[in-house]
Amino acid sequence: MESEMLQSPLLGLGEEDEADLTDWNLPLAFMKKRHCEKIEGSKSLAQSWRMKDRMKTVSVALVLCLNVGVDPPDVVKTTPCARLECWIDPLSMGPQKALETIGANLQKQYENWQPRARYKQSLDPTVDEVKKLCTSLRRNAKEERVLFHYNGHGVPRPTVNGEIWVFNKNYTQYIPLSIYDLQTWMGSPSIFVYDCSNAGLIVKSFKQFALQREQELEVAAINPNHPLAQMPLPPSMKNCIQLAACEANELLPMIPDLPADLFTSCLTTPIKIALRWFCMQKCVSLVPGVTLDLIEKIPGRLNDRRTPLGELNWIFTAITDTIAWNVLPRDLFQKLFRQDLLVASLFRNFLLAERIMRSYNCTPVSSPRLPPTYMHAMWQAWDLAVDICLSQLPTIIEEGTAFRHSPFFAEQLTAFQVWLTMGVENRNPPEQLPIVLQVLLSQVHRLRALDLLGRFLDLGPWAVSLALSVGIFPYVLKLLQSSARELRPLLVFIWAKILAVDSELVVALSHLVVQYESNFCTVALQFMEEEKNYPLPSPATTEGGSLTPVRDSPCTPRLRSVSSYGNIRAVTTARNLNKSLQNLSLTEETGGSVAFSPGNLSTSSSASSTLGSPENEEYILSFETIDKMRRVSSYSSLNSLIGVSFNSVYTQIWRVLLHLAADPYPDVSDLAMKVLNSIAYKATVNARPQRILTTSSLTQSAPASPTNKGIHIHQAGGSPPTSSTSSSSLTNDVAKQPVSRDLPPGRPGATGPVGVQYTPHSHQFPRTRKMFDKGPDQTTDDPDDTAGHKSFISATMQTGFCDWSARYFAQPVMKIPEEHDLESQIRKEREWRFLRNTRVRKQAQQLIQKGITRLDDQIFLNRNPGVPSVVKFHPFTPCVAVADKDSICFWDWEKGEKLDYFHNGNPRYTRVTAMEYLNGQDCSLLLTATDDGAIRVWKNFADLDKNPEMVTAWQGLSDMLPTTRGAGMVVDWEQQTGLLMSSGDVRIIRIWDTDREMKVQDIPTGADSCVTSLSCDSHRSLIVAGLGDGSIRVYDRRMALSECRVMTYREHTAWVVKAYLQKHPEGHIMSVSVNGDVRFFDPRLPESVNVLQIVKGLTALDIHPQANLIACGSMNQFTAIYNGSGELINHIKYYDGFMGQRVGAISCLAFHPHWPHLAVGSNDYYISVYSVEKRVR
Predict the structure, then answer these.
(1) Lowest mean pLDDT: which of 48-57, 407-416, 476-485, 878-887?
(2) Do 1128 and 849 meet the contact criterion of CB atoms below 8 Å apart?
(3) 1058 CA to centre of own chain
(4) N or C: lower Cβ tally within 10 Å for the chain?
(5) E strands of 1050-1108, at which residues?
(6) For the segment 1006-1020, what is each residue's pLDDT rounded down to a tens digit?
(7) In degrees, to the nearest 5, what angle opens at C-alpha 311 toward C-alphas 307 and 317?
(8) Which of 814, 51, 806 is nearest to 468 (CA)?
């Protein structure tokens, strides 16, 4: 149903308002993203997830001041009271043994979280023992983190002066230990855990002492005589982490059913204390048979997720991670939960401590301080998971029934899926994201989790950044080693999304590739062998030199099998390399353009005429083209510098670079110029200084003499040409002029800056030189010159194409495109344009049906900035484009206003000879063709809010020489097929496919004269060409090149001004020569079926496609309009007005595609538009 909606864009419109469905079905040329967007990468988001200062806690000091059997004087204990320390009752054994057992248990509890750390116990210590312990651990830890755990249940509470208590040697006195001294011994980075009453006092004192230290250091930095000035700078204590059991004015809870070290139990044995606390709540009565004793018998291990205890631990980790990620600021979350494994575990457990201890009016404290988390909604999910587990406990223990796994992760994935499916576009991040990462550890839910994760990452770069901040990277990196085949497509998609946002991760991947190189090779071979559905390239195709990826469709790459590698290798052998380069197809045969195509080096989609075809063995760049681009001694002599055959791979590449330097697209030519300049600078050819290329100096020298033309091609033996002695530089007349709307009427020729002179690097060395001499010292006599050299030598060849391509993966690809959304702005605008088109067609047809008796009502007249050479009506807007020699002006013929005027960018001595509107029914583009064979496509013309912008440009015809007496370049455009026919002063008709952006066919004309007019009909696959010798030739594109010319008419005896093929199944050919003879041909018959005679001496002519009208312009300063029967309708000799002057010699004219309007341009700079009489309109 949804697809039907997309196919029926006009639902809900009335019959009178229905747009022509053909407009919806017409393809659009050069409107893909690469044409509409600027070729650059997306703005990289600052990635805060990557921890550059990842740390490890390597040493742990366990300081227990219990003094078993003796209560401290300032604490009055209740009866009964909490007695358990590390789950040991100290009164159940002797004091010393109890102390040692508690210390050993505490160490084991910490080892569950950090087994590789170095643990040291200090049981009921003195000040000196604590100092010795701390300094020793800091010395061994170096720059890593040290943990200091303090249990002060057997000593007085901390003092307001910043002291904690230990013992003297004889245990007769309590001795204060300053936190200031403890900071000195412990150093930084450190983490402190205080389990005693009033522990918040220690945190406050710690901060005050840290601030005091910084102030002392500031004073020492100013005063060199200060005692601290000569000491090494100690690390800042501000970054130390502290966890305290309660606030400064609170006592520890003394509930007899809970351990005395409740805070320590929460930090080191969270599952045990959480279950115990849960059973003490009133809600546990809903689960009968569960007691505190039964909890101790829960089967399983904490690190085994398949067991009840392990699954609870897994769920607990996911929930606490989720709470922290949703509540904490991102940078704080990264520091506490991703920097250090032990610190992350302690802080996850600290969230539980806050929840449990707050229920007993005790508030744990941390530094840095965390927002309150004890009321977070995820704790309810934890309670439910515990409830489900405990409800099974009696039957598991008593009856031995199987454990049913918790639905927690499946339910959280469902919640995440609901968020993805139902949420609005701008919404808060999903709180289940950390849980999704935990689910990746489970094989049961992994596939679904990866699918949902991929859908989340597809939302955009912000989603990727969020996932990376959670910690996705190590999970998906580990999964790359998985052998599960069903995960591979999802992992490829996820990694594409990640790398598109954070390309630095390629380094991490490269390490993995090196480590698992053999595995990846095996997988790659399997992938290629399994692509049985795609046909393999034949050896003949490979032999032809196509090294590009072959595609079945723009989005389905065809993978070559291992067996075809031999063919590719054969192509690159010395025997075939030169031929392969000559015939190298630089675009794909059936697909989008390739990133490394010459026309695509930096921009959207230039298809280049350097595309060779194996059929005609056409070189990438012929020597005529090199002649055209000027021969210079300093560059052509590079051939002899290399010391290789003139037809070698080096000269082939050099020819391509020379050709690209004159590419009509400025970015391409600029890049080629940088390469040429760099090579010219590095090449030391001879003793005299050489000139460096400049981008605007490409045709300052005179053309080569006719006697030397072609000498490079026909030299025997393939030897390089002799270098000329002229000092002129390789030149290019591609004027790199910025597009301007306000060009003066007289545009001076582009003058480039004088070339930079320099001495080759080799001339800095003396004639006699010692072996291993490093060469001359670099002098800086001319810093400006040196900087100039470096400016083009060190210039990096960056096009932005790869970054732009990667941006595709950073953007949503599963989202419905905006142009397919029936309610989008783009869709509404298209509907409006298509309704306008339908209205224009209908009104124009009604006007034509009334009958046309005269066509001389002047509805527009204005002076063009240049002499009009080509004029073209826009099919649906009141806009007419007028081209002069090298610029284009746009006029509104209804309002009489000039809309735009800009330079076409073609070189001097060339002229615009043809124009076509592409996508005229929708988002219009203007195609211009010049007599040097270049084609340029423009957008944003006649738009007051935007400047005209070149979409693409390429060399449509490669062997044209600009001349004032030739036909220039003629084109015919087919919107239905996206094909562009081009010809002119050449002996071929070249067909370009604008969708695939490649040349698809070269049809030889079989004549020695130029092509003056082209017309085609896609339904019959016919092309009609009018030639300068008066012949009319008909070609069938479907036939072989040797047979495709199906008809030749030689009835005209002079230059054919216009040849037009009517666009219907029985359509005839209409042709007119400069002698005024109009002939009608049936393509099926060998002779004309009708002949008419009109005025002679024609300079321009056009045939109306709808109204059966012929308009011709004469050098005798008048325009004549005839009907299809050859009857004169009227002449136009004078401009309207009281002092209406005589029109100038007609230089161009064109009918409107729909309206009975005629635009006429004359040599007196005026452009006028004529229509039928007002009373008819």
Answers:
(1) 48-57
(2) no
(3) 46
(4) N
(5) 1056-1061, 1069-1073, 1077-1081, 1088-1093, 1098-1103
(6) 998 999 999 999 888
(7) 150
(8) 51
